[in-house]
Amino acid sequence: MFTDSLLKQLHLIAGSRYVFTDEPTRMAYGHDETEDFSFPPTVVVKPGTADEVSQIMKLANEHVIPVVPIGARTGLSGGALSIHGGIGLSMERFTSLEIDEKNLQAITGPAVITQVLREAALEKGLFYPPDPSSQGSCSIGGNVAENSGGARAVKYGVTKDYILNLEVVLPSGEIIWTGANTLKNSTGYNLTQLMVGSEGTLGIITKIVVKLIPKPTHNVLMLIPFFKAAQACEAVAAIFRAGVVPSALEFMERDAIDWGLKYLDHVNLDIKPEVEAHLLVEVDGNYPDVLFSEAEKIMGVAEQFAIDEPLFADTEEQKNALWKLRRTVAEAVKSNSVYKEEDTVVPRYELPVLLKGIKQIGKKYGFHSVCYGHAGDGNLHVNIIKGDMTDENWKVEVPKGIREIFELTVSLKGTLSGEHGIGYVQKNYMDIAFSPVQLQLMKGIKQLFDPKNILNPGKILPDAIA
Amino acid sequence: MFTDSLLKQLHLIAGSRYVFTDEPTRMAYGHDETEDFSFPPTVVVKPGTADEVSQIMKLANEHVIPVVPIGARTGLSGGALSIHGGIGLSMERFTSLEIDEKNLQAITGPAVITQVLREAALEKGLFYPPDPSSQGSCSIGGNVAENSGGARAVKYGVTKDYILNLEVVLPSGEIIWTGANTLKNSTGYNLTQLMVGSEGTLGIITKIVVKLIPKPTHNVLMLIPFFKAAQACEAVAAIFRAGVVPSALEFMERDAIDWGLKYLDHVNLDIKPEVEAHLLVEVDGNYPDVLFSEAEKIMGVAEQFAIDEPLFADTEEQKNALWKLRRTVAEAVKSNSVYKEEDTVVPRYELPVLLKGIKQIGKKYGFHSVCYGHAGDGNLHVNIIKGDMTDENWKVEVPKGIREIFELTVSLKGTLSGEHGIGYVQKNYMDIAFSPVQLQLMKGIKQLFDPKNILNPGKILPDAIA
């Protein structure tokens, strides 16, 4: 597939120092944070401009070579895996970042690390709210590709809610902008939102115009221990019905917090053995009195359930420690065992039903799960732990259990993924959420943008229809 | 085109009392609020269920008959006009409405009047923010079709930001849901957002799942007179840069407010002759002290410009009068003269440049314009007044001027429509905002959903490529 002449052309387009065929580089760009998959590209190219990306796409289109856009490789659904080999297009050189204070916008390259964008905005008194747990290492381009969320989505929305306009290189090599740099837009079909969450299968994002908002100046953070996990879930919907919109409302099962604590030696929490779960709740705004009053309302709701003494984080240090604990859970689980992570999402009130169902399904198929996530959004991450399960059961029984979990999710009017995307690992569950009619529409969209199926092939759509 | 046998089948599907071919009904369903257009459908059908809509679409598809979904006929871009005759599909019987307090959602039929939805939510302590000026007469289905905005979009977002899931009948007659009833969703291509703002050209919306939020309990409203219109525009961006996000930030040129006042006899305002424009500014929330402090911050910004004494609306009655004044401007303009309304939108800070340019272009082509709109979003409604202009100039010169206005808008990184849609009247300006590549993508999407081009044909896409 890869002739020397092709490789030579890639050298000419991107410059030889940005084309790699050596084993270590190919291996490094052959994985993301999804399980332990390894799908190295045949060649890694690191273009520097949209024009270079365009030339590469034209070449790939002509020779029908797969191209996989690769970001910071922190994805959890295998979106950046080169499952058919081909060109691994690392976007890492697209690091331009400009904060437009006058319009409360940022214009950023896809390789800018989410936290770098956040901090650049904060320096100007502005706020970019989406904050995936991997914000210190994931890039904004990947966030757009997967429509990432994070803890603050419950108040501020997800990545899609902040994307105004995208510069995109289409599989044909054409370069377009998807919309305009405006807060409102009713001008033709919404190509911007079609691109957000399309997991690098419709086009390659080379520039991103992002909405910023004024920065909230204060916050209050509290950790509330619940003796019953189901009650922690019930409290979530009750907080909103009390008229409070927290800026974060996170759920952690006992295991999640215990494993997180083991992973971080400098955080100490004295948790009673009977505590089954915690809610980590934040409110933010500009007026401390208001925040204390909202925190009181939240505690008023929580006290209707069986809870232990809450912990109020008083200092920035305490707040950072609690957030670090929450954000470390995924890593802690990973370090503990082989696992599979599902990203279920349901209407908020259905969360207790979902949690209960997951545990029952786990019993039926013989797996233990550690659940945590963005409960305010109804978004529950289900970590299925391999532990001492046999390889046979892991391969045969667990997928059946996952299918049942998704069936339950969909029956509750939820869906497969809230913020991680479908990518490689969930695609063959898509039939649970969508009928053949819907899947054919999605396939039609893919074919419209990418008739030769060269851009990130084998993602999103189930094998049966792709 | 319309055989008796076809008509008989429509009678069988929808019931004879819901099929109309009489002249008065056809005329009544042949216009919306766009200029003085009249494009009556050949037959008006008022189906009662998604299944009936499906059967009608199958029939229309088989016989290649145009079908135009018709809502409350308040549109401003001609989206509901049956420009090729055919079946006018009035959705007025889809009035179901259920508020799901537990999940902070509403499940509504497309015919529910926006204000009815708002009030049903408010009764449960919940809030549906989008509030087009026509909220008392427009329907939520039309709002979804056009991605409507309104005054509160500046803080709360537009219709698209509240749509979680849609039941849609495709041109083939297939019935699908576009997504899930969840706050977050990274599961396949975003069919929901592709449908929002597609102006009834991709499918017929038969049910809508809407996100609600807790209701803010208080607000403060002020009307600030500016001696210079350009300075009123400048103040808009400055308010955000001061860290305040108002819940409404509306701009009205002097003419707009004068014409509105003439139209409403019960509202009295004593405006100095030198005042060129007003900003109507609202802040909302749950804590009156906070709102007063934010109002002070806003006045601190405004006082950096040449302003007259602001008016603070103290009572509900005063607030309603000011809002009524703002919402009446469109009707007042309409009653005053034949006019064309453009819905320009630019990044917020560019508003003064846009306003100045519009006036210059008006001078060049000999037309007067009355400008007002949602300045906080950079969304300026430009009402071009016919007045005593000759019919010849109205038909030949004005479109040239509109083209220049849109060219200016796009050069400022803005676009043609912020919230009214493209529909029939703006479609031949689409080449200003989009290249042939983008337009072909949009055409491809249309063909994918509607290969026979039967659903609301002749809208959005320019004649040159449609």
TrEMBL record, chains A, B:
Cofactor(s) essential for the protein: FAD
All copies of domain FAD-binding PCMH-type, residue ranges: 37-215
Secretion signal span: none
SUPFAM superfamilies: FAD-binding/transporter-associated domain-like, FAD-linked oxidases, C-terminal domain
Source domain of life: Bacteria
Gene3D superfamilies linked to this entry: 3.30.465.10, 3.30.70.2190, 3.30.70.2740, Uridine Diphospho-n-acetylenolpyruvylglucosamine Reductase, domain 2, Vanillyl-alcohol Oxidase, Chain A, domain 4
Full protein name: FAD-linked oxidase C-terminal domain-containing protein
